[in-house]
Amino acid sequence: MRLIIIGAVAAGTSAAAKARRNDENAEILIYDKDSFISYSGCGMPYYIGGEVEDAQKLTPRDSAFFKSKYNVDIFISHEVLSINHINKTLEIKNLLTGNIFTDHYDKLIIATGASAVIPPVKGAELKNVFTLRNIGDMNQIKGYINEFSPKSAVIVGTGFIGLEVCESLREIGMDVTLIERLPQVTPGLDEDMAVYVEEHLQKNQVKLFTGASVVEIKKDKVILDNGREVAADFVLLSTGVRPNTDLAVKAGIELGATRAIKVDNRMMTNVKDIYSCGDCSEQFHVVTGKPVYRPMGSTANKTGRIAGDVATGGDLSFRGILGTGIFKVFDMTVALTGLSEREATKEGYNVVFCHNTKPNKPEYMGGKEMVIKGIADKDTGRLLGVQIVGFEGVDKRVDVFATAISYKAKVEDLFHLDLAYAPPFSTTKDPVLYTGMILDNAIHSDRKLISADDLETLISSSKNYQLIDAREASQYEENHVETAMSIPHAKLRDALDDLNKETMTITYCNKGVTGNAAQNILLNHGFKEVYNLSGGHKNYSKNKKSF
């Protein structure tokens, strides 16, 4: 059997390695139009900033490595021009010589990846304007910085790559401004979690313009749609990627709802003996079962392995993704998995969510707070998604949540997880367990939660309510929600006669725990409708629109 793979980065080389493990006798060839293969794209921002000093560490494998270890022939600087699935042939151009020739296959795997989206902005072709998608892009950026020593940078887009490069440019002393057309940074997060990232960026002297677009780039500045001019002698366009599907479309291969290559759970396309994997192919979501497009290196490796296995007679199948992601911005870690509140609401779930602020380990062991937003379906109790912003231990928690969501766990199940505990690593009740407890209470008891947005709406309405600040009086005096009355938790029982049991009541503290304790007292004394402010005053103060 002759297996040809188009593309030699994460998915393509994973497919080749798995195919060789399955079949020692198969002829396996890879064509790639780039000169770099099997590279660590996620490490590129750290080379730009100097944290990774040797670029070769991001490209540890070359064609000779794959030939010697896997007996796979990789031809770099070779572009596949067309696919004839009737004759099972490929038209290929050697980009170094210009020679065009034909090759044939028995099985074909398309792993053509994705390309950076370049917005239609005047000046995008200038030499100080870059995208970052491959090693060539990385080397151009590094070379430009070394040669011209730019002082001011504008990054357009605030996704993973944009924020990672932001940190790297700040590390080498550049002034950085972020431009985001949406009203928040980090589009994958809900707005009430994105505010934590925005605040942290500002603390690290990064300028932000949200709800703004670049309309023109010049050699020393960019011009925004509101007319504002921002100094920039370096510009990075980090506005997303699109799957490379032209070759597939010309061959009659079907695209999916996301306009990536449509595949089944065995990476098969609609054309016999042609498979697709990696950033050019569509995935499906574990929670909804619907098509999604989330190009990630981890998914590329996984789908590549499956394609290589199936193409050589194996029985692996793809089980979907949750869109799990994690990145570092300065010393903050941001992670997400599953559906956001926004996505879950759009999908029609009866959404309940909470904000849980807890340290990753005891404070006496140097624990640092993380904020966990848990999203669940109120009707079934199923955990739908989680977002975390913190400093240590975020990766550990998001992986636990991702596992739980993959196995359709309900929020009540989280409390029963037997997670590892010792003071250097966790609190006795891990933040994961607390998140489950809070959501379980909100779903299965009268311990209802109210969000910062809903409280703002209530305050501006004519509805009758009573709002209790259960913190110490000194905290209340320093700052409080504008219509709140100060009744510290320790004095609440003595003040019950001054409150109306029939009136809607909201309690809050600094982070949520004492507010919940106050809520319990009121409910146990016959108050009819009592809410606790999700995430407490700390979360409210960051998310209050008019704050």
UniProtKB/TrEMBL annotation:
Q: What molecular function does GO assign, one term?
A: CoA-disulfide reductase (NADPH) activity
EC identifiers of the protein: 1.8.1.14
Q: Cross-referenced Pfam families, in alphabetical order? A: Pyr_redox_2 (PF07992), Pyr_redox_dim (PF02852), Rhodanese (PF00581)
What are the names of the required cofactors? FAD
Keywords attached to this Swiss-Prot or TrEMBL record, sorted alphabetically, are: FAD, Flavoprotein, Oxidoreductase, Redox-active center
Q: Which residues form the Rhodanese domain?
A: 461-545
Name the top EC class. oxidoreductase
Q: Which PANTHER family does the record match to this protein?
A: NAD(P)H SULFUR OXIDOREDUCTASE (COA-DEPENDENT) (PTHR43429:SF1), PYRIDINE NUCLEOTIDE-DISULFIDE OXIDOREDUCTASE DOMAIN-CONTAINING (PTHR43429)
What protein family is recorded? Answer: Belongs to the class-III pyridine nucleotide-disulfide oxidoreductase family.
UniProt-recorded name of the protein: Coenzyme A disulfide reductase
Organism of derivation: Anaerotignum neopropionicum
Gene of this entry: cdr_2
